[in-house]
Write a structure and sequence with these properties.
NERD, NERD nuclease, alpha/beta, Trna Endonuclease, Chain: A, domain 1
Length: 161
């Protein structure tokens, strides 16, 4: 299977997991492959945008198996597969920071925005160093719990006209 198809499967599973949330604490609508204007006619693609009454969850979905290594400030991360094969991929934390920057440019900064990096349950997060408390790197199986935890700790917002 090609990487784009594998990625799309992961995004669909992430959306499916979000659709399972049925709580007064957190209700939302997951949107897949949201294109944000960045200027000069270019766009930036958010894998999954979860629009809730608590804010926007910007989700970078990674559908890898294997061992994951990375740091918040490294340009690339590594997935190591059985047999010793390794692949490098662009830092998903940096991807989401970019998405959030464009969202804030487009919508303003009065809407809470949360960054979630969601990995397949088939991978192992071996050494992932994140120091910024607002950035979470999790497995898909923890998505509902983590999202609801955000909801409990965040006041509802309103957009005034």
């Amino acid at each position: 299977m090609d990487p784009q198809t594998i990625g799309s499967i992961g995004e669909n599973r992430t959306v499916g997991k979000l659709k399972q949330i049925s709580s007064d604490e957190l209700y939302g609508i997951p949107l897949k492959n949201v294109y944000l204007p960045v200027g000069d006619g270019r766009t930036s693609e958010v894998d999954v945008l979860f629009v809730t009454q608590k804010g926007l969850f910007v989700i970078e979905s990674k559908n890898y198996s294997g061992w994951i290594f990375g740091s918040e400030n490294n340009k690339t991360w590594t997935v190591s597969y059985k047999g010793g094969r390794k692949e490098h991929f662009y830092n998903p934390v940096m991807q989401n920071k970019s998405h959030i920057k464009y969202l804030e440019k487009f919508l303003g900064k009065n809407i809470p925005i949360f960054s979630l990096i969601v990995f397949s349950d088939r991978c192992e997060l071996m050494k992932v160093d994140i120091t910024t408390s607002s950035i979470k790197v999790i497995h898909r199986k923890d998505l509902i719990k983590r999202s609801q935890r955000y909801a409990r700790s965040t006041l509802m917002f309103s957009i005034s006209s």
